[in-house]
Predict the 3D structure of the following.
Amino acid sequence: MSKPKLGIALGGGAARGWAHIGVLKTLISAGFEPDVIVGTSIGAVAGGCCAVGKNDQLEDFARSLNRRRVFNFLDFNLAGSGLITGQRLCDKLDSHLDSYRIEDLSKGFAAIATELGTGHEVWLKRGRLVDAMHASYAMPGIFRPVKIGGRWLIDGALVNPIPVSVCRALGAQAVIAVNLNSDVYGKGGVIYDHGSSTELTVAEESSADEPRSNGRAALHLLHRQFFGRGDGAPGISTVMVEAFNITQDRIARARLAGDPPDLMIAPQLSSIGLFDFHKADIAIPAGVDATEQMLDQVDRLVSAMAA
């Protein structure tokens, strides 16, 4: 009996995306290597590395990150269309993946992006792998848009956060989805009446205690914007990313309801912030644990769909 063509849809979720490494590693070790890989945002990065057999190298890179190394990758560009150009990260990917083109891969692969202006969902199925990754994770306001084939592209999570539909379109008969945000926004509801007699608090930075030494002051402020403040007040980057992820979660619920996967893997990642890229040692094992709990179901799925 032949196995069904297995697809995996890797969702967006910024730093929580390191969990994809653990998910893919566990599935492959158990004999369930995907034939089709489709990723959105960080899912496109993890999926692309897996498609060319570089999952281990991505894991080594992720585990090597600390706060300082993460900050060094953030090439700020306050005059452009995003806070970060993304060039340093793109150069890092280039050093390992520059020779790969999507149409030459042995597996079916696509990265999902959104066309700026029209809102079109764009499936990147050919061309340079690193360009497709870069476009797919170009979070609006944070990373600058990427121009491919005459179209300006931004993060695919705006239109298809967990791309199950694309896996099926590329021929997958059984689809496993990976949702990085199931335990983060899964309890969202409605607060019907919120009011308080307490004093209004506005999340603003106080300049009184900021260092005044030219460039160091700017770097210190940017560091706090991305990694948080001691009093818990959000910085502008946190507000932008959290708003984006709330939108992503709502879209994902609607799309999954209309086109559900055959199985869902949902790592527990609520302790990992969206910019906590230095927490791979937590995210990757979370992906392993969540996948190990689903292996029996994956086996039953594959066996049931075998021709």
Notes: Residues 256 and 305 are 21 Å apart (CA to CA). The radius of gyration is 20 Å. The beta strands are 6-10, 36-40, 82-84, 108-115, 121-124, 141-143, 146-148, 151-155, 174-178, 263-265. The longest strand covers residues 108-115.
